[in-house]
Design brief:
It is built from 8 helices and 11 strands. The chain is an alpha/beta fold and 257 residues long. It folds into 2 domains: 156 residues, Rossmann fold, CATH 3.40.50.360; 81 residues, Alpha-Beta Plaits, CATH 3.30.70. A 5-stranded parallel beta sheet has the order 2-1-4-6-7, with helices on one face. The chain has a two-stranded parallel sheet with strand order 3-5. The chain has a two-stranded antiparallel ribbon with strand order 8-11. Strand 1, helix 1 and strand 2 form a beta-alpha-beta unit. It binds flavin mononucleotide and iron/sulfur cluster (2 copies). The site of flavin mononucleotide (FMN) has 25 residues, from helix 1 and strand 6.
């Protein structure tokens, strides 16, 4: 059983740690390690995906990975997709990507966890309950996976949601300005942002930090910066804006690539 995961702020990693307790023969594989691979072949009987919802859909890094993944047509494929509010059409998009290969998403499991997108950040007072519920949910998911039980995909396959997601992406990137990142004078040039970036989009120099144009929108750099020195566009960032999963550290994120 091979399980592919991606995380910016640690929620996926907290989930896989729980899955590891029950799915003893599973191998957990970071999607970011396959960035430069042209093809990934996997002939496992059971394949899982664990990743966050971005813009009511599958994150681009997961979409690109799924396109290059070759799997058996009759593999049991499941996904644990998490989100702050709604998965939108993420499960259905993943199913469409798999059906291009003659396979399908047999089971989908949604988990609500704190939203790390800053624009819609989950209030601090609501976060402990979300973290506390997750392990029990994952225990239930694990028993269904071990039974290879088909489970109806959560969310919707409405193409209108796809349009809403694209609008959300435009607003966050272009208007709120997440693609216009800069650092304040608090930056110590420690290099952590460069090391957590899953797509190598950041270069830290002795006197400067440079952001490229292939950002995967994971928000890892913003949240893991120890000095909270990264700003972008017009979105206000203050001491309450940041989120990282309390069970996960920056080294866990760096280990994905
Ligand atoms: C760019 C971006 C877009 C997001 N879009 C959604 C969304 O459409 N719906 C939602 O409920 N949460 C959304 N979120 C919140 C994340 O899905 C959620 O916080 C997730 O658990 C983070 O996972 P991670 O800690 O493994 O990176 C978004 C987060 C980011 C950074
Ligand atoms: S993580 Fe923060 S302090 Fe460190 S180099 Fe990046 S922006 Fe500067
Ligand atoms: S630049 Fe920041 S937000 Fe973009 S992919 Fe890298 S770590 Fe994630």
């Amino acid at each position: 059983m091979n399980l592919y995961y991606f995380s910016g702020t640690g929620n996926s990693i907290a989930i896989i740690r729980e899955l590891q307790k029950y799915l003893k023969d599973a191998e957990f594989k970071p999607i970011a390690k396959h960035l430069d691979d042209a093809d990934v072949n996997d002939d496992s009987e059971v394949i899982g995906f664990i990743f966050p919802t971005y813009y009511m859909d599958v994150p681009d890094i997961v979409r690109d990975f799924t396109r290059k993944l070759s799997i058996k047509k009759d593999a049991f494929v499941f996904a644990v997709i998490h989100y702050g509010i709604t998965p939108g059409r993420a499960f259905h998009s993943l199913n469409e990507l798999l059906s291009e290969k003659g396979a399908k998403l047999s089971a989908g499991f949604g988990i609500v966890l704190p939203d790390n997108s800053i624009a819609l950040k989950t209030p601090l007072r609501k976060q402990p309950e979300m973290h506390a519920l997750m392990p029990l949910t994952v225990k239930n998911i694990s028993s269904m996976v071990l039974e290879k039980r088909s489970v109806t995909l959560p969310g919707s396959d409405s193409s209108l949601l796809g349009v809403k997601g694209k609008v959300g992406s435009f607003v966050l990137r272009k208007i709120f300005g997440t693609e216009r990142k800069r650092v304040t004078s608090d930056c110590t040039h420690c290099g952590i942002c460069e090391r957590v970036c899953p797509v190598n989009n950041i270069t830290v120099y002795d006197d400067n930090v440079s952001f490229g144009d292939k950002c995967a929108d994971c928000f890892a750099c913003i949240h893991w910066c120890p000095e909270k020195a990264i700003r972008y566009g017009i979105l206000k960032v203050n001491s309450k804006s940041h989120y990282t999963n309390p069970e996960v550290c920056a080294a866990d994120i760096m280990a994905q690539k």
